[in-house]
Specification:
Two copies of one chain form a homodimer. With 606 residues, chain A is α+β, with helices and mostly antiparallel strands. In chain A, 33% of the residues lie in helices and 17% in strands. Chain A has helices at residues 28-50, 71-89, 92-107, 136-152, 160-175, 190-201, 204-216, 248-265, 268-284, 316-333, 336-353, 399-408; strands at residues 15-16, 22-24, 368-369, 415-417, 423-425, 431-435, 438-444, 451-458, 464-469, 477-481, 484-488, 492-497, 504-508, 513-516, 528-533, 536-543, 556-557, 563-565, 568-573, 576-582, 592-595, 598-599. In chain A, the strands form three sheets. In chain A, strands 3, 14, 15, 16, 17, 18, 19, 20, 21 and 22 form a ten-stranded antiparallel β-sheet that branches. In chain A, helix 2 packs parallel to helix 4 (136-152) and helix 10 (316-333) packs antiparallel against helix 11 (336-353). At the A-B interface, loops of A face loops of B.
Chain lengths: 606, 606
């Protein structure tokens, strides 16, 4: 049976559920899914229409093409988002829009399967002459992902987009097979696109081609550039790298493809290598928010412990890619640390990126802002990634459609099942989960409170196991089943029993605000502490209307616990109480200074 | 009488001396001047020959031109260095080499005065189509500076280079005058080149053209770019900027030109504006080393207090430019803070940039390195600015010839005179200073010790004033004249008397090592202290042969003063004494980790 979801591996510890089998009810994420369906997807589409990125597919000759060399990929991400949203809601208008875009895209394909509006046409540059920067296989990778979404969400057999995608993939296998070009693309994503298409079609040549791309990297396969080959993960072979490095989105997309290849080829060694790279990256190269990429230069990971809050690049797309990667590792291993990072990244990167009205987005997500940013022009795309406040669109606008496809498919990341019929609850969202014969109803206002009530509405006769993640940020959680209450401390709290309809499980998570201290090796935040509450990182924000200097001399007292009042958290400082707001709300009140890491009046020593 | 020096303003508080009137004897700077004359200049020339940058002037058609678009400027800086070195030493071979290069350069000039090997020739791009990035006026500015050096160091009346430079400047005045192109160059330096040529020739059209370029900036005059217009100081008019911002070398070259324009046009308001910008920049946007530019992205100044030691760009060229700017402000005002910054920058940026053998150079000068850098290929130019260790050459190799011209002209920065016949000693270097009728002999091994003995060998009859700078880093200094000893605390220590030959002045500077604490607003070094000794910043260095992890967990005790032994300084840490070496020696022992700011076991609170 087809699982309707992004990333459907053929093996692994956990099995994903279909989007339709998990419904996210009203709440923190339900409202964002609704905003995505009602606003964000249309917003993306109308900007891409206005700027000609969709129209580029109509211009057969390539003359008059508009936008940067990778805009095709943004159209494909939009189509992918529309596919998932259509499957989630069954909206008819989306089906028609997808079919229309699919026909348009199909019309731009060359007879041999090549498809790119920027290269290979009369009057434009020839194909594959600039693998470092041309983004042709990057665009193809996103095309494949859109095609997979189309196939999994019920494309008719003669669907033009599905057929186009298969032809495009076949072309890539010929052009970059053993008898063809032995290069790789400067921007990975083709790897995971090919493996997913293999999963969706069963055609092994796609898997083999993905494996080739993974193994070619770092021999090296690309020219040196001023950023260095680490920028596109071509400095050393995938198997030799100790951690993720270079351009963060490139590194994370590649790692996701490496996991996909490792899983489908049964290459356990490769899987362990990526898991080790992930572990070191999360331990030493990741922000408290889950943000990845600490350098503006090259939009890249820094060295271990190089985590400046003020210059955090922490691109929104890197957050999306990190969720996709962690999800693959979670499915492969069943280890809760991956779901922990997904939770952290969703609440503090993805949620932060989107304006409350769904019409503006952060590209970078710094943890400190010293000078109130300028207000982006609402009528023009921002020429800069660091637009200051959320901007409606960017000259390089990879992030908004990336968020759109993640939000549309978010229910895929909530729960899984195992071959023994067990069900695993990874994220705490209200709603309904169906996993085979099991039906769960989850009630919670998490992360506002920490109580999550899981009711079994249906299930098989006899005992089966229900696993609930114990977040890494908590000291543990309290579980109550019937009269019995106990503490669970790490990993997954398991309850195996013969559940009967109406049985309940109550989870109590300790979401009271808490101080978090950095590693002494992170020089940039020495002598500081941050405040978290549940999965939410907090920050101090100083709207420009008031003094903008106060945060630069802020000094807080951590001898008392932070207190919790009406959605804000308060800590003591020399000049009285300081209000902290959830980091994902920063910038909503206009230009402001902001900081997550708060200097301590008396620093605790390591 | 012609003053043979870079920057010879027509008015101001202080008057510069000719290179030939100040001889720097053996010692810290004497050895570096000698290295420059014997190695660095030849090293630069041979790389420029090998890479075709000099040969580009032979290729009349432009076909086969090699190197980046701005390499002409590096050849001009080399010529400038050779001119100053020739004047300093009287070396005959340099005179011939200058004449030969001058003839070569002259041969590449178009009939209308335009001179650039990258643009305006058959088969190449047209002139002035890309003011943002083309660097045509930037190259012209360095050409003018080379021509000024040639004129001031005794070019014959029919010298081809001098004539070429005048034609080039005339061309710029026509092409960019009121009736011509109203643009400016993306990379300033033409401004100061024009004013200096005005000073050297008396032709006011050059001054007027420089004034035009200064006033056009920021209206805006250039297109927007992803870095933003602040990158090339085109975001706001020069008179409206609160501090230096954007690309540091661009900002500092421009500011030097603005000072030149302000001085020669008598625009006191403009001079005060630049002085205020300088003050804010030095107070809030400058590293302890004097390094400027805290961002790799855009090689630019950061916001106030954004001074990460690990990602300090602190380009060597920005150090050279900062010396040139501070010197102009010092000549204009006579205020010691400018000489203070020159001393700091010379000892910690310029001295750091050059390898002991004079054959390798830092491009960036970070204050912390967490991962031992790779060893650059000694046979090829580095494709990257952050080469790790000092590299022999760079694809963008602006820094080595910039250091060469500064070292060759270094004696210009030591002392000045005033219209009343006073003499001011700004830098403490052993040697001889002649200022009109006054001849001083300075004996010192500064900065090894703090004793500086100044002997008056000649001077006018009657009283005249001798001023000695009291460095800002010191709590004061002790002056001894004959039997009399007293303390001077700030600015310049003045001794006015009827000096007789053989009279002496003894200066004792407190060069014992001292702790330096950062402003609490500089987040990146909170809870740290640095050690300085005299003008020298110290650092901890961990050669790769030993553990590379120790510096990441270093924690020092500042309850005792640092101690001084055999050229190193020692401080206490939990695991015993830690040796600190002068920052300018870091990287001399091969790949190593390094840090200037040392985490404190018990942080002092602001």
């Amino acid at each position: 049976m087809t699982v309707v979801a992004p990333a459907v591996p053929g093996r692994g510890a956990l099995r994903p559920l279909s989007l339709g089998d998990v419904r996210i009810g009203p709440g923190f994420w339900g409202s964002r899914q609704q905003l995505n369906g009602e606003v964000i997807i249309d917003h993306c589409r109308s900007w891409m229409e206005r700027l000609g990125w969709i129209g580029n597919f109509r211009v057969a000759s390539g003359a008059g093409r508009r936008g940067r060399e990778f805009t095709d990929a943004d159209v494909y991400k939009l189509v992918e988002a529309m596919c998932w949203e259509s499957a989630r809601t069954g909206r008819d208008d989306l089906g028609a829009a997808i079919a229309s875009l699919g026909t348009l895209i199909a019309g731009a394909q060359e007879p041999d399967g090549y498809l790119n509006t920027r290269f290979g046409h009369q009057g434009l540059d020839a194909r594959y002459r600039d693998l470092e920067w041309g983004h042709e296989l990057y665009c193809a990778g996103h095309l494949l992902q859109a095609g997979v979404a189309r196939l999994r969400t019920g494309a008719p057999p003669d669907d033009p987009l599905a057929a186009t995608v298969v032809r495009a993939a076949d072309h890539v296998c010929v052009a970059f097979g053993d008898g063809g070009n032995h290069g790789v693309d400067g921007h990975p994503v083709i790897e995971t696109g090919l493996v997913e298409l293999y999963r969706a079609t069963g055609s092994e040549r796609y898997l083999e081609q993905a494996r080739r791309f993974v193994e070619r990297r770092g021999r090296p396969a690309l020219a040196d550039i001023p950023f260095g080959r680490a920028y596109f993960q071509d400095d050393v072979p995938v198997r030799s790298a100790p951690a993720f490095r270079g351009h963060a989105v490139r590194a994370l997309y590649l790692a996701a493809g490496v996991v996909d290849v490792a899983i489908e080829t049964g290459d356990r060694e490769l899987l362990e290598i990526v898991a080790d790279q992930w572990q070191r990256t999360v331990a030493h190269r990741t922000y408290l928010t889950g943000g990845m990429g600490s350098r503006h230069e090259g939009e890249s990971f820094g060295d271990d412990h190089e985590l400046p809050p003020d210059r955090a690049y922490a691109e929104t797309c890197a957050g999306v890619a990190s969720v996709q990667l962690a999800w693959r590792l979670l499915l492969a291993t069943g280890e809760s640390r991956y779901a922990d990072l997904i939770e952290r990244t969703l609440h503090n990167v993805v949620a932060t990126a989107v304006a409350p009205d769904g019409r503006a987005f952060f590209y970078t997500n710094p943890l400190q802002v010293r000078v109130p940013p300028s207000v982006p022009d609402p009528t023009e795309p921002s020429p800069r990634a660091a637009a200051g406040l959320r901007a409606p669109w960017y000259d390089v606008s990879c992030c908004p459609p990336n968020v759109a496809r993640l939000l549309a498919s978010l229910s895929a990341y909530v729960a899984t099942t195992t071959s023994d019929g067990g069900v695993q609850l990874h994220q705490f969202m209200p709603g309904r989960v169906q996993a085979g014969p099991v039906v769960l109803e989850v009630s919670t206002d998490y992360p506002v409170s920490g109580r999550v009530v899981v009711r079994v509405d249906a299930g098989p006769a006899g005992p089966w196991r229900l696993d609930v993640r114990v977040p890494g940020w908590s000291d543990g959680l309290r579980l109550t089943v019937g009269e019995e209450t106990w503490e669970a401390t790490r990993g997954y709290a398991s309850v195996e029993r013969a559940w009967r309809p109406g049985d309940g499980l109550v989870v109590d998570l300790p979401v009271r605000p808490r101080w978090t201290y950095p590693s002494p090796q992170v020089d940039a935040v020495r002598g500081c502490a941050a405040v978290e509450r549940g999965p939410i990182v907090y920050c101090a924000e100083s709207p420009a209307a008031e003094s903008t200097e106060d945060l630069s001399l802020l000094s807080v007292d951590d001898s008392a616990e932070p207190t919790d009042r009406a959605g804000s958290v308060y800590v003591d400082s020399r000049s009285g109480g300081v209000e902290l707001i959830p980091y994902h709300r920063w910038g909503n009140r206009g230009p402001a200074t902001m900081r997550v890491w708060l200097p301590l009046a008396t620093a605790r020593r390591p």
